TrEMBL record:
It comes from the Bacteria. Gene3D superfamilies: 3.30.70.260, Aldolase class I (3.20.20.70), Chorismate mutase (1.20.59.10), Periplasmic binding protein-like II (3.40.190.10). GO terms for molecular function: chorismate mutase activity; prephenate dehydratase activity; transferase activity. InterPro entries: ACT-like_dom_sf, ACT_dom, Aldolase_TIM, Chorismate_II_sf, CM_dom_sf, CM_II_prokaryot, CM_P_1, DAHP1/KDSA. It catalyses: prephenate + H(+) = 3-phenylpyruvate + CO2 + H2O. SMART domains: CM_2 (SM00830). Residues 106-285 form the Prephenate dehydratase domain. This is Chorismate mutase. The lineage of its organism: Bacteria, Pseudomonadati, Pseudomonadota, Gammaproteobacteria, Alteromonadales. Pathway: Amino-acid biosynthesis; L-phenylalanine biosynthesis; phenylpyruvate from prephenate: step 1/1. One of its GO terms (cellular component) is cytoplasm. It holds the Pfam family CM_2. GO terms for biological process: chorismate metabolic process; L-phenylalanine biosynthetic process.
Length: 647
């Protein structure tokens, strides 16, 4: 193998670039505080989405000119702008509440240093440039007592999580305290397996964790049933146990928290959901004022009585005053069975005229109503660009696109009227041969996979696409075991390829290779695989137009290999930025323009996968891809139905 070119020098260059990037980011942050000062004197709103749109459109264009794709530039800048907006809010908030301005503040939170609550609290204080004196508590009541008694200035209470939902205990506690909500903060919760330095994954027998992380990682734990679970009162307690334990124990916690206990993360990404976030509320003895330039939230609790339609009447009051409700929860009222207390978060400042009017009307119809607090909303919705602004073509694709339009382009029906038949091992995929594939990341492979592979085969799948989210090199031992088990179950192995160098290893095990969407513009990968003889699935990039996708297919076909399948996996959806929407219109267009088989990958879709699968099959798809874990039950009835439709 060729020696890596002067790795150390290259790394030094990267390190110095990273230093410059950080210096620039810090300078940008300082400037945004200056902007907040000017908005303070002009009384202008913090958020200016028109300015953000202009800025993002320009950056996407400039990024493209330098070879950076739009999604990359947008996600970086969404993070930068979120930080900028939150810092400006924190600045104005502190100006509006001079009594609360302190250099040092005491904060009560669940657990001890390193717990998720601790991380949320320390980030909140850091943004406000106050030194945190931390008071770890054993439970939520203790947190409330610490604040009520004056022992702590603030209490941090987790209120909801994207995987496990609302935290009922906290809602129940809010019914009985006199504390005011003065803030909210949301943190990303990255669950890892944390162990003492030198511990090996295969030696771990016992896991310590708080019940919340256990429920948020239920899928990982179900796949690794050999661990003995020990429940703890907080993640910090779990980490402390591991710090004093041997090499057979591990804790579930954040890498950042683990570092405080000298623990290393030996497995990452344990949570069921990729986006795993927890929202905390901040409580204090006294309510605060929220400046009118800052987007505010107000939390109310209310009992409406059992009259039919009472809750609807309440909601109509909010609607009549044009107030958006962002959350509604109900909890039983202790001591009065069958009655419920409602918790409402509304997007409004309690000091605003319309909120005051709505409140007066609500007071008339509710049996009980109390404002728990008004505080700055920390939800900074990313500003979206219009479709047209995003689809500015990269110059590099223009030539290929013109080529694609030529009548003799190889992917066209004019070039080849009959549909292409692609053979992957024992499986044929074509206009006449419909295939069902499952998809899973290689990380999910474990020793009990044989049974799962058999179940996939029994459900009617013909092959499995193995993706590799890990940017590290391929683990060949794992790959060979996995492919052996797939072969034993009679399933084709379709392996995702990220770099040309991986071809020699992957083609030894694979019936076909998948060029993932993010590599769709990778010309060297396209031409290398185009020069090979292995069948290939070309996935559409989530931001690519049909023409760009076909231009990549053309580049591949021109190199010689004609065994190509197009794979539609969904495009960015501006309603749900984190989800993908399957583009069935493109399926229809491609079927008309090209002889290449098209398969539709539904495993990233949030929509009704069964309905989409049936629609895709009726619109001429040559196959579908479902999630190897989530969709196994659905597939037992869906796949026979799809095969029946094909006959
Ligand atoms: C910095 C400003 O405030 C906010 C943050 C922005 C940014 O960080 O670029 C842009 C617009 C505003 O939503 C501004 O108004 O310029």
């Amino acid at each position: 193998m060729k020696k890596a070119p002067q790795l150390n020098q290259l790394r030094e260059l990267i390190t110095s670039l990273d230093n410059e990037l950080l210096t620039l980011l810090a300078k940008r942050r300082l400037l945004s505080i200056e902007v907040a000062r000017s908005k303070e004197s002009d009384i202008r709103p913090i958020r200016d989405t028109t300015r953000e749109k202009e800025l993002l459109a320009r950056l996407v264009q400039q990024g493209r000119d330098q070879g950076l794709d739009a999604h990359y530039v947008l996600s970086l800048y969404h993070t930068i702008i979120e930080d900028s907006v939150l810092n400006q809010q924190a600045y104005l908030q502190s100006q509006a509440n001079p009594d609360n301005r302190k250099h040092r503040t005491s904060v009560a939170y669940l657990g001890a240093r390193g717990s998720y609550s601790y991380l949320a609290a320390s980030r909140y204080c850091q943004r406000r440039q106050v030194e945190m004196q931390d008071i770890g508590c054993a439970n939520f009541d203790e947190i409330a007592n610490a604040v009520e008694s004056g022992h702590a200035d603030y209490g941090f209470l987790p209120i909801e999580n994207t995987s496990s939902g609302s935290i009922n205990e906290v809602f129940d506690l809010l019914q009985h305290t006199n504390l005011a909500i003065v803030g909210e903060t949301t943190i990303d919760v990255g669950h890892c397996l944390l162990a003492k330095s030198g511990s090996k994954l295969e030696d771990i027998k016992t896991l310590y964790a708080h019940p919340q992380p256990i429920s948020q990682c239920s899928r990982y734990l179900a796949h690794n049933g050999h661990y003995k679970l020990q429940y703890c009162s907080s993640s910090a307690e779990a980490m402390e146990k591991v710090q004093h334990g041997d090499h057979t124990v591990a804790a579930i916690g954040s890498a950042e928290g683990g570092a405080l206990y000298e623990l290393e993360s030996i497995e990452t990404g344990l949570a069921n959901q990729k986006v795993n976030r927890t929202r905390f509320i901040v409580v204090a003895r006294k309510a605060i004022d929220v400046p009118e330039q800052v987007p505010a939230k107000t939390t109310l609790i209310m009992a409406t009585g059992q009259k039919p339609g009472a809750l609807v009447d309440t909601l109509l009051v909010l609607k009549a005053h044009n107030i958006n409700m962002s959350k509604l929860e109900s909890r039983p009222i202790t001591g009065t069975p069958w009655e419920e207390m409602f918790y409402l978060d509304v997007d409004a400042n309690i000091a605003s005229a319309n909120m005051q009017r709505a409140l007066k009307e609500l007071e008339r119809i509710a049996r009980f109503i109390k404002v728990l607090g008004c505080y700055a909303s920390e939800t900074v919705k990313p500003t979206r660009l219009e479709h047209g602004q995003l689809l500015i073509e990269p110059d590099s694709s223009k030539v290929a696109k013109q080529q694609a339009r030529k009548l003799d382009a190889r992917h066209t029906r004019q070039f080849k009227p009959s549909g292409t038949e692609v053979t992957l091992g024992q499986t044929v995929i074509s206009e006449q041969h419909f295939a069902s594939l499952a998809q899973m990341p290689i990380e999910w492979f474990n020793d009990s996979f044989t049974a799962h592979a058999m179940a996939l085969k029994e459900a009617g799948f013909q092959g499995v696409i193995i993706t590799n989210n890990d940017s590290n090199a391929i683990d060949e031992v794992k790959l060979s075991k996995l492919c052996k088990q797939l072969a034993q179950a009679g399933l084709e192995a379709i392996l995702a390829i990220e770099q040309t160098q991986e071809l020699s290893i992957l083609q030894e095990y694979a019936s076909a290779l998948l060029i993932p969407g993010k590599q769709m513009f990778n010309k060297s990968l396209l031409s290398t695989l185009g020069s090979s003889s292995i069948p290939v699935l070309l996935e559409r990039n989530t931001m690519a137009s049909e023409d760009e996708w076909l231009a990549s297919a053309e580049l591949f076909l021109q190199a010689g290999n004609q065994q190509l399948i197009l794979c539609e996996s969904g495009v960015r959806n501006f309603n749900h930025p984190e989800a993908l929407a399957v583009d069935l219109t493109s399926l229809v267009n491609l079927r008309a323009q090209s002889h290449l088989p098209v398969i539709v990958n539904l495993s990233y879709s949030r929509d009704n996968r069964e309905a989409l699968a049936l629609a895709a099959s009726k619109l001429g798809a040559s196959g579908i891809v479902l999630d190897a874990l989530d969709d196994i039950e659905t597939s037992q009835t869906l796949l026979p139905e799809l095969y029946r439709l094909q006959q």
